[in-house]
Amino acid sequence: MSEFQNKPCDHELEQLINDAQILFDEADDVPLQVREYEKKLGIYLISPSSFLVEPERIQVAKTNLQSFGFKVKVDKYATEKYLRFAGSDIQRAKSFTRAIKESKAPIIMPTRGGYGITRILPLIDWKLLAENPRTYCGYSDFTAFNLALLAKTGLPSFTGPNAVSDFGSDKLDELTTEIFVEMMRGELEILSFVSEESDSVDEHGVLWGGNLALLTALLGTPYFPKIKKGILFLEDVSEHPYRVERLLIQLHQAGVLKSQKAIVFGDISDYKLADNDNGFSMYSVIEWLRKTVKVPVVTGLPYGHGEVRVTLPIGIKVGIATENGMAHLVIDKHNHSKSEIDSENCLKLHKYKRKNK
């Protein structure tokens, strides 16, 4: 896949970063609110992975999404159960077909992650998806679809909240919600976050990545996108640092990591160190990566299975720069999704401050 054109001008990028730094320095912890929109975008909910443990939560998610200004339709098989999956492989693969043929909703979201998408990749009608581009948004197991879509069709998508996992609760994370809504409407231009232990970087490239285990599982298949000189971002959950390192070694030995312009780490969460680790930790993994791959490494991205989950494009040209303990991710608005999302609203700045764990 060739790189996108219309690279943001350097002076525009510098101005955006300066503006973001000023806003960040002046910002207080003021709760964010989702503003009302006259135009309501449609969302079609599917369950291509594991079944919903609490299917009643799908109604909560629907209500919450409607309160954000979306129209929501739920796939007829969204609450199915078959073994550990939300229906048979055929049913789940056909959910993408139904989303296109039975709805005009420009946004398609999974209800949850879990496991199951890699099983159905050969069954998905990629030609239909290529001819009817939509906006797809989900994370975790949905990484397999995000990357396969890019590899098979060249179409971008988004990684961000899953409908029920994130919006099926009575208590929502405000920042996750705000960024999701504005990204779906084409309004988010720059994300700034604390990144005190990052390498110096000022690069442009196609943003891609997601869950490390899922990404690595696609290596060597027709569903792995061949991105050169990209910005690769990674997250994972319940994976011990040595297992994270083993996955990174596989990507390194396959030549994937050294061909990137930068590697960005989101949350590596929910693991326990043992006595026999003897000081080995994620810090050890990052230091090994820096010495071995010789590619700039950025940490602190608020993305993954943590409390805050920002929405990010996959397959879109971005700029990334670090400065004074901050990292700035700038989205090229000229190369947004080919789907029907509303991009006429004014672009806005977002800032995010997190405590490094």
Structure description:
The protein is 31% helix and 21% strand. Helix 9 links the parallel strand 7 (202-211) and strand 8. With 357 residues, the chain is of the alpha/beta class. The protein has helices at 10-26, 57-67, 89-101, 117-120, 126-131, 143-153, 163-167, 174-184, 212-217, 241-253, 282-293, and strands spanning 41-46, 70-74, 107-110, 135-136, 157-159, 188-194, 202-211, 231-237, 262-269, 297-298, 312-314, 316-323, 326-331, 348-351. Helix 10 runs parallel beside helix 11 (282-293). It contains eleven helices and 14 strands.
Describe the secondary-structure layout.
Elements (H helix, E strand, L loop, with lengths): L9 H17 L14 E6 L10 H11 L2 E5 L14 H13 L5 E4 L6 H4 L5 H6 L3 E2 L6 H11 L3 E3 L3 H5 L6 H11 L3 E7 L7 E10 H6 L13 E7 L3 H13 L8 E8 L12 H12 L3 E2 L13 E3 L1 E8 L2 E6 L16 E4 L6
Parallel strand pairs: 1-2, 1-3, 3-4, 6-14, 7-8, 8-9, 9-10
Antiparallel strand pairs: 5-11, 6-13, 7-12, 12-13
Per CATH, the architecture of the domain at 41-186 is 3-Layer(aba) Sandwich
What gap, in angstroms, lies between the N and C termini?
A: 36 Å
Rg value: 19 Å
Could you tell me the number of beta strands? 14
Q: What global shape is seen?
A: globular
Provide the residue-averaged pLDDT.
87
Class based on secondary structure composition and strand pairing: alpha/beta
Tell me about the largest β-sheet: 8 strands, mixed
For the largest sheet, list the strands in their spatial order: 10-9-8-7-12-13-6-14
Short description:
Helix content is 31%, strand content 21%. The protein has 357 residues and is of the alpha/beta class. It has a domain at 41-186: Murein tetrapeptidase LD-carboxypeptidase, N-terminal domain (Rossmann fold), CATH 3.40.50.
